[in-house]
Design brief:
The complex is a heterotrimer of chains A (249), B (229) and C (259). With 249 residues, chain A is mostly helical. Chain A has helices at 2-24, 37-65, 68-100, 109-129, 134-164, 184-233. By secondary structure, chain C is α/β, with parallel strands linked by helices. In chain C, strand 8 (174-178), helix 6 (186-201) and strand 9 form a beta-alpha-beta unit. The chains are: A mainly alpha (249), B mainly alpha (229), C alpha/beta (259).
Amino acid sequence: MKTRVLGFAGLAAVTAAAIYGLFVVPADLNQGDAQRIMYVHVASAWLAYASFGVTALAGIGYLWKRDLRFDAVALAGAEVGVMFTAFAIWGGMMWGRPVWGVYWQWEDPRLTTTALLLALYVGYLLLRRLTDDPARRASRAAVVGLIAAVDIPIVHFSVIWWRGLHQGPTIGDPGKILNPSAPLLFVAALMAMVAAFTLVWVYLMIRRYQLARVDWQIEEHGRLGRITAARRAGMAPAATTAGNEEPAS
Amino acid sequence: MRELRRAAAVALAIARKDATAELRGRQAAGSTLFFAALVLLLFGFALGPDSRRLTDAAPGLLWLAIVFGGLLTVSRLHQLEADDGALEQLALYPVDRRAVYAGKALAGAAAMLVLGGLLLPVVAILYAIPIGAAWLPLLAAVLLGAIGFAAVGTAYAGLTVRLRAREVMLPLLMLPIVAPLLLAAVKATGAALTGDPLGELGSWLQLLAAFDVIMLVVGAGTYGFLLEE
Amino acid sequence: MPQTTIYVAPRFPGTLGTTPLAVATVELARLFGRSAALAGVSVNVEVGRTVALLGPNGAGKTTLLRLCATAIRPSFGSLAIDGLDALRHPEQIRGRVAYLSHATGHYDDLSAAENLRFAATMFGWGAAEGAAVCDEALAGVGLDPVAQDRVGTFSAGMRKRLALARMLVARPSLVLLDEPHAALDDEGMALVDQLLGQWHEAGVTVLVASHQAERVARMADGAIRLDGGLVAEVTGAGVSLGSSVPTLTPQVAATGMDR
């Protein structure tokens, strides 16, 4: 019930923030209306990275505690995260076309890092699909999630240095949005969208986790069923000859 | 202290065993080297015949060839465990699994160092690169790149050795992870070859070193979980 | 066939009949995908006993051995080797257990001696003693004429002998054998029998799964017969049914989702 309220709240928040960002806040002088995409793009990107962090931490949790609930959280983070990542990249490209003139710009560190993030997520999810045994799947996924999460900061620094020597286009730097000298309204619109997206993110994570739990419970009942069926079908153990215990049931 | 010595002995024994197997199974290691050289040749056909363009692209092409050869190398080092079920035995020895990881990563790094080192003259010839005085920083870049690739590759090869669709999953998982390694190694190589006009060689080598250290630590910490079934 | 005594004394010797039990399982189960290879086995095996694992194909003999070797983790239930919980202290268990599986696990490009020397280092032997132990083990299994040959050239029987030599180098207190007689000629099978005898004498606990029930039963103190992943029958000395828990409660090892 609470989750449903959260879902509606998130939906309402996104709508409100979208209206604010689309109609209320003035357009950017340089980029025009295209700049409005940034509110959604940046919010999406932040949550994509946050999801990845969740996946990595949950993976560590599994390796430490061997509790498959951690793995369910990791899976939720990965699936929700891949959504936000894809959306962020799409938003980035949609913004890039009118502003840069091209869909892709190798010198934009955020875009390239996010693209790698998508590749890492997809690899993670594919790996999960290829492993049947739940425990082994959780172990492998945890390792991959951890290595990938550790890699992201390295990627971040390397692509920033990569660009460093080329004076990339200063107009059209998405980082300018967060420049403190930017008008307060821009920042407010961005923060509103981030908050709204976060609500939606939490909702999606909870729902996906619940789904994973149900999936697991169904599978577990199936497995337990196999065991009890095997026990019933198997021969009742006879008593030992060199007398000790009572015969087992 | 005694544990450290024991771990080192274990790691060295594993590395020595892998190296012996690599040298004896000469065809496989040599084939990988030849394949990488072939890739370099093919790049010439793909991007040539303008020599200027090839010379400019040389660092990137070299490292792509090293990466492709490296994928085959790390995969092979774990395949030799899988062939007769030796991996299961390896998982059952009363040894610290981080030492097992260290041994296999050491063997992988050595194999890739040889691969990279032998590709340098090939690149020099095919793309008209004057290596000359730059051989030391070049070798440093190859060494650091080899270590980093082997660090990640050992872990992922261990992960995929029993995985379905192994041949595609190993590259699929590895390539995004080694993207920064590739980037830094190419930049370092380029800087070394042009005499480092912007003074960036040191920074790129440091980035490589940082990558190596981080990946070795994470790899060692997680390899044990991958050996279990 | 040289009748030398092979040095088999375990590094962690127990005494016949004392606790803790060499092997103690409670509702031990292991699932592979949808099928239960082991569906709830509770047995106790005393230290120093030789126990035969009997049963048809697919009964769970190999799975039980692999669980005892800590090669795989249990899906449910618990397992203790020499009183050590398999989930909490697997490394300590590995130091005392040697497992002969269907796959012999050698490196084809290395010689028999090199394979064994590598194993010796893994088991903790130093350089000099390791060499001596390896030579002795190779001689004991009759492989010294081919010690320097690549294992890739070996027959299945020779590979098995090398695997047995590796077990000797390990000096285990619990020996797990999965079909040791398979792929061996008469001489090889006699070697296995000799080893079984020597292990028994040295107080090493042995669990041997075999189709050759009569041959093994002659040498064994007791027997566990499995069928369909469950214990069908327990006979002989030194082995008994363990306590069984009325309801099957999944271990944290594999779940956590029922809460």
